[in-house]
Amino acid sequence: MGYNDSIIEKEVVQFLINFQNVILARDYGDYDEQIEDIQEHYENQWNRVTEKYYKSDLWPKPEDIAEEFSNNGIDFLDEFRVLYTELYYRHAHAKVGSNKSRDTSPALQEMMYCRFKSWDNYVEFFNKIINTEHQPYWHLPPQWLWDIMDEFIYQFGQYRQYRSKMGNKSADEIDYLKHTGDDKWNIHSVLNVLHSIVDKSQIEESLAVYTGKNNQDTEVTEFGHNLMYKYLGYFSLIGLLRFHVLIGDYQLAITSIEAIPAQLLYNLKDIEWFITTNYYYGFALLMMKRYQEAINILQRVLNYIERTLNRAGSAPQRTVQYKIDQQEKRVHQLYELLAICSTLYPCKLDDSIEEKMRAKVGDEKLARMADGDEKAFEDVYGHVAPKFVPLGSPPLDSQKAVTYANAQLQKRVFMCEVRSQLQLPAIRRYLKLYTTMELPKLTSFLSKNQDFSKEHSTSMENATLSYLMTCKVKMALAGGEDFDKTCPSTSKILNAPEPRPVNEDDVNDDNGPSVDFYVDGKMVHIADTAVEKTYGKTFLKLIDQYHKYEDQASQIGKK
After folding, report:
1. In the structure, what pLDDT confidence band is assigned to residue 489 with cuts at 50, 70 and 90?
2. What is the largest CA-CA distance in the chain?
3. What is the pTM of this model?
4. Do both 393 and 452 map to the same domain?
5. In b/e form, how buried is each residue of 525-535, taking b as 16+ CB within 10 angstroms?
6. Residue-level pLDDT at 432
7. What are the φ and ψ backbone dihedral angles of 438, each rounded to 5 degrees?
8. Are residues 477 and 372 in the same domain?
9. What span, in angstroms and rounded, lies between the C-alpha atoms of 528 and 513?
């Protein structure tokens, strides 16, 4: 079929009628059975019909489906119209995004910009969720709710990419942008939606009760007890994490999910949510230079992923191939994040995780990064970084493009940090060989590097001392040292944020560089900080882990 083909097969119409009945039926006796039927129609049958009839075509427009329903004597109910429209635009985005050659058919050309009308449908859907006094009688499975929030943020990024580049826009596209204005798909509008869902669902209050942080009787409305609202609120918190990472605000990104207890992420039924959350959280920690915390979290996450994915039947897999590919890509990016962090903050890694990291990243690239090769860092960062959202909107009558301005800014920030540490790996290697070393001797070792000699030809000894102090400070920062406590200031920071609570699961006393030093005049004194392990503490940790696994096993047995 071509894009102009308006014939709607009877099988398609009947499938959509059944789909509407399954979602909006009031006579289902069992909630779980209804959710399973909706999931079957959404995940399997929708994709089967798409593959059969709309693999190279767009799904029929909502108004055409309404006409077909009417011809069959069936009302096209408002709730299902909104849900179908969401799927319609999602499919349209996938078709336009995969069409690299820009198909010349009028319908697809029109969809190059008309797909962004999905904003109005999202507003209508979220209004049904937010601006209501009573919870809806219909429900959606968690996987569909996740995909709605995932697609909402994805389409926001797609529009910002589209709006940031005014070259080669047709007259129709310019006219569409003039009439649309900058109110739709802007940063504040998307943030307002996400925060409104969080507030309506009362997810933060529910999580506070769940973690025991709020022992008082928190007043929770009917929406706070509704399972669909709980999932939407939970996914909105994760959406805020992703949103803030995409615009480059990493502190807000980390703050966004502080309400979510770490253990709850491991109890999620779908591994896709778990992987996505930890990818964006890990990237935010990297850009905030919290390397030790990132390493501890990434190792634990990757251990869990490997155990889960390798255990048959333990995690439901998506039937859509692009979702499976996306999941595999995210896991690979988690290993690359670990490679960057462990290079900038050398420490002992779990043997199995280190072996898999070397297999995925490559020994040659890891060696180049350890030697301070900027190109190696750029290559790995280019693959691990998300697709940042452009923040600018050039004038409609210009040919300007600011598509990559934000991405280039984030890359410069990262590479600036890398360049400030280029000599640190070599310094650590030399210090491990001595207990004391004169400063001129260390300078002579470093001067064998041509880049060091060129950059500091006039005062190499002062440069060495500067690098030693840099190494000291960066290791302290990366290890989580609070300088407000160790080096208190007499001045007070206005509107200072609350201290970040320390998660005991993210603390590993054995994880960190094994070399420390101090400088006395012209002499560097080196101390090996690796101490003999206290087996009692390790034994107590293992007992605690065993009790956690025992609790999880007992909960599974009750289901």
Report:
1. very low
2. 92
3. 0.83
4. no
5. ebeeeeeeeee
6. 79
7. -70, 145
8. no
9. 9
DSSP letters, 313-377, are TSSPPPSSHHHHHHHHHHHHHHHHHHHHHHHHS--PPPHHHHHHHHHHH-HHHHHHHHTT-HHHH
The Cα 291–Cα 136 span in angstroms is 44
Check whether residue 331 and residue 349 sit in a common domain. yes
287 and 311, same domain (yes or no): yes
Residue-wise burial string across 42-71, b where 16 or more C-beta atoms lie within 10 A, e elsewhere: bbeebeebbeebeeebbbbebeebbebbee
> What single letter denotes the amino acid at residue 200?
K
Nearest-Å Rg of the Cα atoms of the chain is: 27
Measured CA to CA, the distance from residue 99 to residue 302 in angstroms comes to 34
Q: How many residues are there in the chain?
A: 559
- Of 401, 419, 437, the one marking the end of a domain is 419
Whether residue 160 is contained in a domain is answered as: yes
315 vs 91: CA distance, rounded Å:
26
Contact (CB, 8 A) for 170 and 106: no
Q: 19 and 136, same structural domain? A: yes
**Does 363 map to a domain?**
yes
- Reading the block at residue 400, the tokens are 């300007």
| Residue 492 belongs to some domain of the structure | no
Summarised one tens digit per residue, pLDDT across range 21-55 is 999 987 777 888 999 999 999 999 999 999 999 98
* DSSP state letters, 207-231: HHHHHTS--S-----HHHH-HHHHH
> Is the pLDDT reported for residue 75 higher than 80?
yes
Cα–Cα distance, 501 to 245 (Å, whole number) = 21
Query: What would the two tokens of residue 81 be?
Result: 């119209």
For residue 418 the two structure tokens come to 């890398």
Report how many domains make up the chain. Answer: 3
- Write the CA distances from 172 to 101, 117, 315, 398, integer angstroms: 19, 14, 46, 15
Residue pair 259/204 in contact by the 8 Å Cβ criterion = yes
Which residue, chain included where needed, has tokens 């204005």? 181
Rounded alpha-carbon distances, angstroms, from residue 428 to 66, 239, 529: 69, 39, 13
Phi and psi at residue 403, in whole multiples of 5°? -55, -45
Is residue 227 domain-resident? no
Judgement on whether residues 465 and 554 belong to the same structural domain of the protein = yes
- What is the span of the domain harbouring residue 536? 424-481+508-558
Residues 167 and 89 in one domain: no
pLDDT on residue 1: 40
For 133-216, where are the alpha helices, taking DSSP H only?
Answer: 142-163, 171-180, 187-201, 203-211
Residue 324 and residue 371 in one domain: yes
167 burial via Cβ count (<10 Å: 0-12, 13-18, 19+): exposed
Q: Looking at residue 521, what DSSP letter applies?
A: T
Residue that is last in its domain, among 419, 448, 467 = 419
